[in-house]
Design goal:
single chain; alpha/beta; 4-stranded mixed β-sheet; 3-stranded mixed β-sheet; elongated; 4Fe-4S; iron ion binding; iron
């Protein structure tokens, strides 16, 4: 479920040595499955362990995960990196904002997952996003642009070179194209 690197385990062991005996760590997700999901790590004293908690055993401590956070922490990793600028603990949880869908889930669910997990984070740097509105009988994925992408002068390039290319490659043989159904209105919200 959660991979913790050796350097991160050593870091946690050092921190826990200064805590009351029996203290472990808790890994959690606030607002799991939403765009505002945030992951965190905290101390978990013995009296804070819940019956439903999943306990992950490591060499010198346990990591507690509440049952609501668990599916969103699938494939998560924690690392502790030191470089010339200092040290940093990183927690990567690719499924925190949206639960990973299985390979045999319906096409619309798999498309939506890729849009939410991979494409929208790229568009977010310009304040934009897309939503899948339908998949036509011909296999065309119909999307709508929102936020900074609505009315942006580069939307056609973004659609053809970015989004469509990514989705056609990923869903080869399942979709035949991607079409924009947005009524674009250039305004202050538009990126360019």
């Amino acid at each position: 479920m959660i991979a913790i690197s050796e350097s991160a385990q050593a870091h946690f062991a050092k921190l826990l040595a200064d805590q009351p005996e029996g203290t472990h760590i808790r890994v959690f997700v606030i607002n799991p499955g939403t765009p505002s999901a945030e992951c965190g790590v905290s101390y978990c004293p013995p009296d804070a362990v819940e019956e439903e908690d999943i306990q992950l055993e490591f060499e010198s401590f346990k990591a507690m995960v509440d049952d609501k956070s668990a599916p969103f922490l699938e494939d998560a990793s924690i690392d502790f990196v030191t470089d010339q600028l200092g040290s940093q603990l990183t927690l990567k949880a690719p499924n925190a904002k949206m639960r990973k869908v299985s390979d045999n889930a319906p096409l619309a669910e798999r498309l939506d997952y890729v849009i939410q997990a991979e494409i929208n984070p790229q568009l977010a740097s310009h304040g934009g996003h897309i939503v899948l509105t339908e998949i036509t009988e011909e296999g065309v994925a119909v999307i709508q642009f929102g936020g900074g992408c609505n009315g942006c002068s580069m939307v056609d390039v973004t659609l053809k070179d970015g989004i469509e290319g990514q989705l056609l490659e990923r869903f080869a043989g399942e979709i035949t194209g991607v079409r924009d159904a947005t009524e674009h209105q250039h305004g202050e919200h538009s990126y360019q």
